[in-house]
Amino acid sequence: MSRKWSRYSSVAITLALFLAIGETAWAGDLQIRIKQKATVERDSITLGDIASFNPEEDERVAALRELEVASAPPPGRDLSLNSRFLIYRLSALMGGDPGVKVKVPQNLLVHRDGQVVSVKKLTKIFKDYVFNHAPWPREVMRVDKMNTPGPVTLPRGRLAWEARERTNGDFVGETSLVVAFTVNGKVYRKVPVSGRIWVTRKIIRTAKKIEKGEIIEEKNLLQVRESTDRLSKDNVTALNQVIGKRATTTIQSGKVIKLRMVEVPPAVKKGDRVVIRAENGSIEITALGRVLEDARSGEQVRVINVASGKELFATVVGHGQVAVTF
């Protein structure tokens, strides 16, 4: 035995391969040499991945190459197979043929090749999805506090991915996605990725203290832009949402105004004198009335006709005016 082969166990295994087409006896010797190191890309380790054949033109080689020896390690990882396992496995795969001889090393190290999706790439996938699906313009959004599982190693092949939301979809505050990676069209791994989203929006603050019941004027307000990771439907974002309304509570200077802090003031108040308009087609009658309760425009209100003393229901149509039909 040459010095080159002295590193290997001198194991001669008599092998025979029973092909699907029959049990044809082969002529001639075929030498199979198992490597000490091999690299694979697929999920399984075949004999063709780890062996050399001499002569390669032997008619048995094509079928022998496809024999599955073991499962491959995860992408980017190594797997060590010792001679005992190799002898056992190859003996199980192939029968006795004195014309086939196998030389097996003490150990075979198999490396699974792969492709790495970096943290930078995961971050870009997250941001691209958020910026493309959020209801806010990209220029008013900021993403920080990214959380990823670290680099993701996947098998070699055509890589694609699809991201889906795990949170409520308002794209403010803590937002989570699941990214499903496919290789050659097959889903291989699903990865959680999250980040915190900040949105810059207009908000309304008070320029001075506003007393409860006070009608809010534009001079009482400040419109500013602030970045926030918490949005509420109760936030006031435009001056016209509050100007002319009445404060339902005392609002200190500098406070952010919420919708619940204001209300539309009544168009008529209890005790107010109003004009009652009664219409029926082309006929219109007016009378003087007195309101029995506060009411806003469009609301029903109890009114007493001052002349007749009769109580009736009318609709508030504006300041100092109500309408009835007859």
Key terms:
4 helices, 4 domains, 5-stranded antiparallel beta sheet, 11% helix, Type Iii Antifreeze Protein Isoform Hplc 12, 5-stranded mixed beta barrel, mainly beta, 326 residues, Thiol Ester Dehydrase, Chain A, 23 strands, eubacterium ventriosum atcc fold
Spatial shape: rod-shaped
The tally of domains stands at 4
Largest sheet composition? 5 strands, antiparallel
Distance between the termini: 121 Å
Helix vs. strand class:
mainly beta
- In terms of per-residue confidence, which ranges show pLDDT below 50 for 5 or more consecutive residues? 1-27
CATH superfamily of the largest domain: eubacterium ventriosum atcc domain
CATH architecture of the largest domain: Sandwich
Structural notes for this entry:
This protein is mostly beta strands and 326 residues long. It has helices at 47-50, 61-65, 83-93, 119-133, and strands at 8-9, 30-34, 37-40, 44-46, 51-54, 68-71, 78-82, 100-105, 107-112, 114-117, 141-147, 152-155, 159-165, 173-183, 186-206, 221-228, 246-247, 262-263, 273-280, 283-291, 300-305, 311-318, 321-325. It has 4 domains: 3-112, eubacterium ventriosum atcc domain (eubacterium ventriosum atcc fold, Sandwich); 116-199, Thiol Ester Dehydrase, Chain A (Roll); 200-263, Antifreeze-like/N-acetylneuraminic acid synthase C-terminal domain (Type Iii Antifreeze Protein Isoform Hplc 12); 273-325, SH3 type barrels, CATH 2.30.30. Strands 11, 13, 14, 15 and 16 form a 5-stranded antiparallel β-sheet that branches. A 5-stranded mixed barrel has the order 19-20-21-22-23. Strands 1-8-2-5 form a 4-stranded mixed β-sheet. It starts with 7 loop residues before the first strand and ends with a strand.
